[in-house]
Amino acid sequence: MNAIKLHPLKKLEIILAGEHKEFATDLLDRAGVKGYTIVGNLSGKGSHGLYGGHLMFNEDDVLIMIIAAVPQSLVDPLLDGFQPFFDAHSGVIFVSDIQVGRLAKFMA
Amino acid sequence: MNAIKLHPLKKLEIILAGEHKEFATDLLDRAGVKGYTIVGNLSGKGSHGLYGGHLMFNEDDVLIMIIAAVPQSLVDPLLDGFQPFFDAHSGVIFVSDIQVGRLAKFMA
Amino acid sequence: MNAIKLHPLKKLEIILAGEHKEFATDLLDRAGVKGYTIVGNLSGKGSHGLYGGHLMFNEDDVLIMIIAAVPQSLVDPLLDGFQPFFDAHSGVIFVSDIQVGRLAKFMA
């Protein structure tokens, strides 16, 4: 068995209404994100951050979660790029630490 | 580009049979969790913790995963609240660290 | 309320074409992984690490994500076991830290 060297990356989990999928993937592409995976047909519930108590999603909305692994250097530009969208639309971005075996797949 | 301040939260990933969805979302609502996202139509396999070796899920069971981002202070009450359920039913809860840009969406 | 003792584990998120599901679950079973959850019908895009710039997945491919919580001791053997597969096929494995309340469900 060979020792596997793991490399740290950041995972973004972007949850938003499915109708905005192209906006989000275009933004990821333009920022230089090399890949993403999309989980479809989610449901959810939440309150809107700016107008607390208002429904963010109805149970019936079709949500998607876009999962992308990116270098640390892309986290701030991506969050900044999505900020105007999330000022006007519902959804969230979770940022977390992951490790991957093959850094080349994720670096521009 | 503005610097984005990130705030730490805990992510709960609750995997259980779809028939128990309402029990779980009711528990989250009553605990003050402000939102969650549900991934449906999962499949899975596992052994039951109390009776090792018995099947936890069959390949054919319809499972769901409920994803919720909560403040640290809610983790113990939620795990405690789910404990009797998972004593009697199959499933798991994963707890992990995430960061979010907008804390207001997740705090009561 | 009882204090819940949490135990650290590693979460593997294995994203690959759905046609290779059995290969992956067989490998997990043989390595002693006690359970996993499969998210189906994903879509995605990415470039291949070995041949940068080539498409890893087309938007139309049916991808799956296999989620498994494993003890630290299984991470290297599993990454090692999947390495020849990912040398020849598209896909990724994300490794991250999680905590669980019931260690017995995840240990051989």
UniProtKB/TrEMBL annotation, chains A, B, C:
Q: Does the keyword Repeat apply?
A: no
GO BP terms in the entry = regulation of nitrogen utilization
Supply the InterPro entries for this chain. Answer: N-reg_PII, N-reg_PII-like_a/b, N-reg_PII/ATP_PRibTrfase_C
Q: Which GO terms describe its molecular function?
A: enzyme regulator activity
> SUPFAM superfamilies this protein is in?
GlnB-like
Q: What Gene3D superfamilies is this protein classified in?
A: 3.30.70.120
Keywords from UniProt, A to Z, are: Plasmid
Entry annotated with the keyword Transcription regulation = no
Q: What does this protein do?
A: In nitrogen-limiting conditions, when the ratio of Gln to 2-ketoglutarate decreases, P-II is uridylylated to P-II-UMP. P-II-UMP allows the deadenylation of glutamine synthetase (GS), thus activating the enzyme. Conversely, in nitrogen excess P-II is deuridylated and promotes the adenylation of GS. P-II indirectly controls the transcription of the GS gene (glnA). P-II prevents NR-II-catalyzed conversion of NR-I to NR-I-phosphate, the transcriptional activator of glnA. When P-II is uridylylated to P-II-UMP, these events are reversed.
What name does UniProt use for this protein?
A: Nitrogen regulatory protein P-II
From which organism does this entry originate? Nitrobacter hamburgensis (strain DSM 10229 / NCIMB 13809 / X14)
- Lineage, broadest ranks: Bacteria, Pseudomonadati, Pseudomonadota, Alphaproteobacteria, Hyphomicrobiales
